[in-house]
Here is the input.
Amino acid sequence: MSAIPVHRDQGAMPELLLVVNRISKRFGGLQALSDVSFGICKGDIYGLIGPNGAGKTTLFNVLTSLYQPEMGTANFMGHQLTRLKPHEIAQVGIARTFQNIRLFANLSAIENVMIGRHVRTRAGVLGAVLRNRATLEEERAIEQRAYELLEYVGIADRANDIARSLSYGDQRRLEIARALATEPTLLALDEPAAGMNPSETVVLRQLIEKIRNDGVTVLLIEHDMKLVMGLCNRVLVLEYGRVLAEGKPSEVQRDPRVIEAYLGKGAAGQAGAAVAAPASDIAARQSTGASHSNQGRHDS
Ligand SMILES: Nc1ncnc2c1ncn2[C@@H]1O[C@H](COP(=O)(O)OP(=O)(O)OP(=O)(O)O)[C@@H](O)[C@H]1O
Ligand SMILES: [Mg+2]
Here is the structure.
């Protein structure tokens, strides 16, 4: 991974990386996503929040081609994601982790990362099976890089331990290392703090900031509001598959509709929340450079 931080001129036009336009997804009689539109800019830590069942993971699954939407498009750096096969998603520069951890439980931590790395190698998975000389050399380089990634996420001391023997927090960090092995431009994390204790969450927050500072844009689903509001420069709120609000964390957390969705009817009035206009207009972001004005600062 490049150690060069993303160039973030305060006045510069933010570069749109992902434009999601009117995505809808239905499961039988259930409308899981309705007309969802938003944009992610290079350098964002973009939060995706909403109550249980709001459609957050479904949106990840649509963006990574696990599900086909009935309607809408998702343009990622010129690629129409909805036309790609799931295995092509990593090749265009998107990697993800899963809400329910998906590791090879009986392989070591380093082997799990090496598997992630194979999408970026010439030999590929088939070469790894055939094992000629060039492949073996490449394999050594892959192992070295996998070790560096384990160091990067802070679990190099567990490199040779079987994945299932790792603590929950370490398994989540291992999933991040495996995702980073594909050298993504956009890293999508589905509830990375789930099951972590407060001190693990602090370390995770530092890791996500480091990843962004090293040039990887982050899309983050998370229920830990302190983490989301402190870390993200932009937040999208889903409720029943619809966009409820979109904007800076400071705007979103004051939005009465958001307060109501989380705390129930009447809560917005009790909280004395000021109405803040959700700034969902991508064009407005481009003209103001708003997405990067909050980098590194915390709105909570
Ligand atoms: N493969 C599927 N088949 C049928 N229904 C599904 C499927 N995947 C998701 N759903 C339904 O779609 C809705 C949205 O689910 P989703 O998992 O996207 O929510 P979420 O916002 O990620 O929730 P959580 O915070 O609990 O993870 C839910 O009602 C869920 O039951
Ligand atoms: Mg989910």
